[in-house]
User: Fold D-malate dehydrogenase (decarboxylating) from Ornithinimicrobium cerasi.
Amino acid sequence: MDESDDAYLARRAGARHTPIGANLSARPLLHRLDPLDHVVRGSRLVKPISVALSRSSRQRGGMQMESPDISRKVTVAVIPGDGIGTEVMEPTLGILEAVGERHGLEFAWQHHDWSCEYYTRTGAMMPEDGLEQLAAADQILLGAVGFPGVPDHVSLWGLLIPIRRAFRQYINLRPVRLMPGIDSPLVLREGTEIDFVVVRENNEGEYSEVGGRMYRGTPDEFAVQESVFTRRGVERAARFALDLAASRRGSLASATKSNGIVHTMPFWDEVVHDCARDYPGVEVRDYHIDALAALFVLDPGRFDVVVASNLFGDILTDLGAAIIGSIGIAPSANLNPEGEHPSMFEPVHGSAPDIAGQGIANPLGQIWAASLMLDHLGHPQAAAEVVSAIEASLTSGVRTRDLGGTASTTEVADAVLRHVTSEGAAA
Ligand SMILES: NC(=O)c1ccc[n+]([C@@H]2O[C@H](COP(=O)([O-])OP(=O)(O)OC[C@H]3O[C@@H](n4cnc5c(N)ncnc54)[C@H](O)[C@@H]3O)[C@@H](O)[C@H]2O)c1
Assistant:
């Protein structure tokens, strides 16, 4: 750890949430401090996501220990979706099975063909009882949805957004880390490390159903879309991000636009700073979203944790994915931190119709997302092995076209699988 146990305990005492991103060596302290951190709810155990988030936390953590009370049987709903979603999902399941076998983890896959193709056949993106079916699973793995011929708002609001909302997946966690062997498109100053996490509010904000259109097709036509920011919604995102920052380098950047958006954004700022009073060890700084976007390009090394509203977080993380080399590598976790509902793990990218069916999609975003799931399930060592295997395969030069290589989806996934297996054999 970077700080003494006592300092960590003192800082942690003020935190109300389980700090996700705590490194492994902090875990025994969490056991002592807060028994609720280790409540097992089936395989929805809420555990700190650590290894998949931070290179430095893995370096500090050394050998990762798994708590003996973690459930070993995991039912995962699998929704490959559309386009390259179907291509990157299958090899990911093989990697999970390989790493699971060594860690005594048994996966039961519940396959769902819900997609735009399903919509074309049935008129809906998922069956009427789709959410009930998913509720029976411990976790959800999603590829991507969306395909030409079905409007994007239909595919998004017919599947992805209902899942995020019904299961109160109010945190969208997106690590932005430059992996070894990958060149950022940015010219980075000597010694700059890109290693930060974006916490995106995932249930409300700009993505609301409140609004409508009138006078369609006439010169008087207009559309109104209301943003919805609740104290509860902003506070839980802010506290999650503050906890995460407290367990990392102690710095939180809050994305705002309070100069131009005069009601919701000053409210966002106020709530974030109200919460921050409970975290004296975390330095909080507000950035207007336009300036923040520029700094992602000009000075990405300054960031540790970034908290943002639904829309701002969405846009920032595509930019984040671009600066770490490709959107094909970036992972995303839609978390229900309490573990009362399944969480959902997916790559940041979409269905990429322009390359679908060619076997050249980068599978690493999906595989890294699977590693976030292992970590969330309380299997940090298994998660670490998957991340190390991704790093090893990248370092060995096996890369898809988006990263400047020539390898196919299968060749990259096979390389990760080989490294997962050899790492396990070496352990
Ligand atoms: N979570 C989701 O399911 C999700 C997210 C974003 C977009 N979408 C949907 O996906 C469809 C396409 O959207 P888009 O083009 O804006 O975004 P996209 O992420 O699908 O593609 C953007 C660009 O990145 C490339 N790309 C994306 N993933 C890649 C990978 N794994 N390997 C190599 N290259 C990759 C694509 O070829 C494309 O050039 C739309 O229907 C959109 O609504 C879905």
The CA atoms of residues 190 and 399 lie 25 Å apart. Residues 1-41, 55-64 have pLDDT under 50 and may be disordered. The longest helix spans residues 84-102.
